[in-house]
What does this fold into?
Amino acid sequence: MSVKNKTRYAILGVLNVSPCTGYDIKKYCDKIIAHFWNENYGHIYPVLKSLQEEGLIERVEEEIQDRKKKYAITTKGREEFLNWLKEPANYQPARSEFLLKLSFSKDLKREEIRSMILSYKEDHMKKLKDYGKMEAYIEQNQTTFDKDQRFFIHAPLRYGIISAKSVVSWCDEMLNEIDL
Amino acid sequence: MSVKNKTRYAILGVLNVSPCTGYDIKKYCDKIIAHFWNENYGHIYPVLKSLQEEGLIERVEEEIQDRKKKYAITTKGREEFLNWLKEPANYQPARSEFLLKLSFSKDLKREEIRSMILSYKEDHMKKLKDYGKMEAYIEQNQTTFDKDQRFFIHAPLRYGIISAKSVVSWCDEMLNEIDL
DNA sequence: TTCCTCATGTAATTCGTTACATGATTGC
DNA sequence: GCAATCATGTAACGAATTACATGAGGAA
It folds into this structure.
């Protein structure tokens, strides 16, 4: 178990949806789950290799003609994946560079702090806009996804929306307070 | 610049408040900023050493009698720290193990998903309770902190409260939706 | 023919956590 | 005398990012 980590399960999870290549996995991360997960090639390929060595995934050779390496999850892999799913999610120690800066900002000018919060607010409003687009897309293509599928795409998205909204309202509260 | 990272600035930030030891820095992290930042000894001590080598901090020998190593930020260190403060906070790629699991949970029973969300809700309600206590403490000891100080402690705390509340309401929304 | 996307991988480095190791001091 | 806290550090490991390296195929 040379490389054992979160990536491991992210990969198994994607392969549990459907067999695909390392490249596809990266795309899935960037397109579908980007707002709460990220992966990079430098990690995907080595983990893919070690998962195969452990027998949790296997090569699928449809047409061996090309250089693509398509993988599928094995029974053993599915078992390990489901076990992981059922475990409670690990507590993740928070690390917000923004809050760290803010909490240390006593020596900055009021105006600098204002603009710091303002730009943070804008970032989150932009996020909100993106999420809105995604949500609209899911709504419009209701027929594409069945009700179950929709929940698993929609739920994390709602999470993003609600969180971003709460950040925006926090920003407003702080911008107000800072002028007093 | 052997060890250059966030820890670097977290340490400079704490030392910019007041000179202290590595041990004190750890305590500050655990007590004051734990809800949005964490550090561990294994990282603090080496970084402390390299910051000293770079001349950003220096030893303070009050009474050399004891084994304590008290550090203070230097002018050079303060300069670098303020420069960092003024830069916009780096975008941090999100990684939520909980959302990753949820989005991959299509093969779990509805009841399992319910309890997954429920326990997540409880975690955040507990957080909320802790934040409430801290907030009350600050309110009660208003005289201890001047208005400026209060803002920099209170603002991140409010952030935590607002965020946790939004998570709780998301959980309720999802628990409701899952039964439909 | 040039650029973009597809596609796979390695190496170097940095970053962060955990375990290990040690010992003084303080309060009960 | 014992436990808890104070106090400092190293080593090993594991995780994650970035840079590097390569090349095919298709579109403009």
